Fold this sequence. Notes:
Blueprint: H1 3-19, H2 23-29, H3 37-42, E1 68-69, E2 77-78, E3 86-90, H4 91-97, H5 102-106, E4 112-114, E5 124-126, E6 129-131, E7 135-137, E8 140-141, E9 153-160, H6 164-167, E10 174-180, E11 188-196, E12 200-211, E13 215-227, E14 234-247, E15 252-266, E16 273-274, E17 277-278, E18 294-311, E19 314-334, E20 343-370, E21 373-394, E22 401-407, E23 420-442, E24 446-465, E25 468-491, E26 494-505, H7 511-514, H8 518-522, E27 526-539, E28 544-561, E29 569-587, E30 592-607, E31 624-633, E32 638-647, E33 650-651, E34 659-660, E35 663-673, E36 677-684, E37 694-697, E38 700-702, E39 708-716
Parallel strand pairs: 7-10
Antiparallel strand pairs: 1-2, 3-9, 4-5, 5-6, 7-8, 9-10, 11-12, 11-39, 12-13, 13-14, 14-15, 15-18, 16-17, 18-19, 19-20, 20-21, 20-22, 21-23, 23-24, 24-25, 25-26, 26-27, 27-28, 28-29, 29-30, 30-31, 31-32, 32-35, 33-34, 35-36, 36-39, 37-38
Helix pairs in contact: 1-2
Amino acid sequence: MSKNRYLGWQLIAGLACLQLPSAACMAAAMPAASDDATAESTGATDDDTLLPTMVVNGWYASQYLVPRTSSATGTNTPLVDIAQSIEVIPEAVLRDQGSESIADAVRNSPGVAVNMGEGMRDEVYLRGVKTKYDFFTDGLRDDTEYMRDLYNVSHVDVLQGPAALLFGRGGAGGLINIVTKQPERRSIRNASIEFGSWGHLRGTADVGSAIGDAGAFRLLAMGEDSGGFRDDYFLHRYAINPKFSFQLGEDTRLDLSASHLNDRRIVDRGITSEDGRPVDVPRGTFFGAPDQNMSVGHVSAFAARFTHAFNENLTLNSSLRTSYADRQYENTYAGSAPDANGQFKMKGYAHDHKRHGYIGHTDLVADLGAGAVTHTLLFGADYSWQRDHDFQLLPSEGSKNVPGRYPVSNPEIAPIVFPYLDRDNRVLGKELGLYVQDQVSFGEHWKAIFGTRWDRFTVNADYLNPAVSPDNTYNVDTTWSPRAGLIFKPTANYSIYASVTKAFTPQGANIALSRKSPDGANLDPEKAINYEIGNKLDLFDGQLLLSAAVFRLNLDDVVAEAADGSGDLVNTGSQRNKGFSVSAEGALTSNWSIYANYTHMNARITKATEEADAGAHVGLVPSNQFSVWTRYALDSHWGIGAGAHGESKKYTSYDNHVQLPGYVVGDLMAYYQAERFRVQLNLNNVTDRHYFPTASSDFEIMPGEPRNLMLTLDMNF
């Protein structure tokens, strides 16, 4: 049998086994494993069948598969041994696609939908659960409301299903952990510049080297001055992230990092709806006051990580992150559908928000046992402190409504005044978490993971709100968050798993809910339980990973923001989010790489409340969603890439009054690279499809980008 035919048969058999996980299927698809380590990991005995690692001019990160991560277990674990769905989106995929935001990155992860986030923050749905708080950087909480940039990112890990055991308070749908680039003891001298449609201009820098005999530093920076396809849009931002690493003896290491991001942009909350669909206006039409809709934000952070190995079986890790964020935000936006006269209501407010916080995290990893049964025990504790100051003004007393009505034919307005105090509140949140986890191996074929976490979360808030009597609220929630998973491995490169995870999320844990009024802090905790079965197949000596999962996530006491964009909190009752996902990531041949996924999900409200009907679809969660991206290296210099992403129809909110049509968008890429430089051209939305990928409410809908070009010059000095 020829090499190509053998690899093709191996891939087809592996895909079939993902849908029919059984040892018999694997035995038919793969040759018997031998004692040889290479054969064990590939299922092959002939070295000629091994897929060679592709290295393209060394300096350019080319791999589409990151085979291990600590985001899911707290220990460095192969993806095939993780009893949970996780997508690790590497730098190579992000660079080839021209990704620069969280929204760009997560389209590569099955079951993730993007919320517009009022045009000024990252906000996503993970397995049908909306969150703007479940973001982490290098494993530490980063829940400030802002738009994150990818200039310093090594890979983006998307963990799906409850993850409270390791990460504490948060949503039941999962989390996003941004893993950043670290100092290395080698010379790094890289810079890039981008030019694109609508005046896009962006530059990045990445420099580093060794320090003496036991240290290293790295400096990453970014600057951008861009326009956009939306009328009046602009974006000005810059960031800097210096990092240092010191080896303090053979077994001890200290890592230090500081970062600052400055972001100034027009606040664009999209277009309104009419008759249950996006209103028929040119896709650049701006609704609001373009001379006033501004967001100015500053986010600064410092992080330290200390690692010490007492011996080869016992390691201590201790981390600290402190951050400060300050954002000023004024905006007006559509607040209703147009009436019979073609006129709509406008809403608006002025909002200042400051957040200061720190989190300390320590864990102890112990490897115990020998022979047939081994344990990796993880004991951990973390403590967080977070203070918010939230100040908001309104255009009308007690209401966000701007006086008057405005024509859809001319929806831009002049700046308005915000004379009425809505709130001037201060909130302090504290969390103490303790947890234990055990990863167990039983011989060659069985693994298990189980553990639990205890949290105590307190909210102490001073409310100065004209609609609420001056009040001080002190609220305490204690919760337990257990997890359990079992893995069967017929061969070393194939796993079948089942897992159950629970999460109890105090509503006060979402500080932003608490800061609005006492009602936000005193709502019942959200309770969730996730059931999942799946399998993972590692092919071609670890070059390609195929994954599939079936899941069911049940939630109670779910709280959402009102469908009219007012920001008021409503209880949407119980949800059931169920479905399945499949994905492929890595290399098919030495020249051909792929990153693809598909998800089918049914996310519905199962228990009626005053605000939501039983049987209604969860907003912004499509039934079908896919993304595929592939790159082919024609030779050591030239390469091409292509991809498509799309989804079926979805609703803008839980009331199911406004529907966004389904769409498919295609993208192309080509590059030329040499030892010292790389030139890349991206053509996005090749067919110029008019589509609507996201929204914030029934009356805030964002059109997708028209056809556009981006040229990137990457240089290695």
